[in-house]
Design goal:
alpha/beta; 5-stranded parallel beta sheet; 8 helices; 12 strands; 42% helix; elongated
Length: 236
């Protein structure tokens, strides 16, 4: 039985979601205060967090950021804010998905199942035996795939978030071929995630800012109306 922590200060909504999840056989704990919710979230007792954005004492973005520093527990952000900036901010602070209020309980249940499936797959990969360290090279970048470390030929480490790293690997593994925005969304956020394709543009910009070299063409080429690609240097 999966354990769910709901951190939500709208008590009627929290109670409604709790009853619906318990009907679906989830074990549910509810906390209405942000700071107390963080303490519970850091306890490691829960399989997934449902997290409101606006909370007393400590907001949802800060809770997500602190949880992500020590844990990969899936986080679904529940928010009344639906602008692209708010959504990207939630994802960038560590949320795995978001749902905009008011929402249908069926959609929340589907998103919950999706993040739990992805979490289970990632745990299986992490626990699988690693026979050797695979190293991938691209231009002046060297990527240690087991440790998920990226560094340049001069030894400097490129500090990438989990999603930035996954985006880089998708592009490099498909080098010289265009990868569509939809394919990137499906591979990074999952086919069940309802996230607009312009979120990909935001993460492409983040990645470019970290891997591109000043004064030189971007490593990532935008193919207008289609997607993105990286190319071997000799093909430029």
């Amino acid at each position: 039985m999966s354990k769910v922590l709901i951190i939500e200060d709208e008590k009627n909504l929290a109670r409604f979601v709790q009853l619906e999840l318990e009907h679906e056989k989830y074990e549910v704990t509810v906390e209405n205060n942000g700071r107390k919710g963080l303490d519970l979230a850091l306890s490691g007792k829960f399989d997934v967090l449902l997290l409101d954005l606006m909370l007393p004492e400590l907001n949802g973005l800060e809770i997500a950021r602190r949880v992500r520093q020590v844990s990969s527990t899936p986080i679904i952000m529940m928010t009344a804010r639906d602008s692209i900036i708010d959504r990207v901010s939630g994802l960038d602070h560590g949320a795995d998905d978001y749902i905009v209020k008011p929402f249908a309980i069926e959609e929340l249940l589907a998103r919950l199942r999706a993040v739990l499936r992805r979490s289970d797959l990632e745990n299986k990969k992490m626990n699988a035996p690693q026979l050797h360290q695979k190293v991938v090279k691209y231009r002046d970048l060297t990527i240690e795939t087991e440790n998920r470390i990226v560094h340049r030929n001069d030894g400097k480490t490129v500090d990438l978030t989990k999603r930035e790293y996954n985006l880089l690997m998708i592009l490099i593994e498909n080098r010289n071929n265009v990868v569509s925005r939809e394919e990137i969304l499906n591979k990074i956020w999952g086919e069940d995630a309802k996230i607009e394709t312009n979120v990909v543009e935001v993460y492409i910009r983040y990645l470019r800012n970290k891997i591109d070299v000043a004064g030189q063409p971007s490593y990532i080429k935008t193919v207008r109306g289609t997607g993105y690609m990286v190319r071997d240097e000799e093909n430029d």
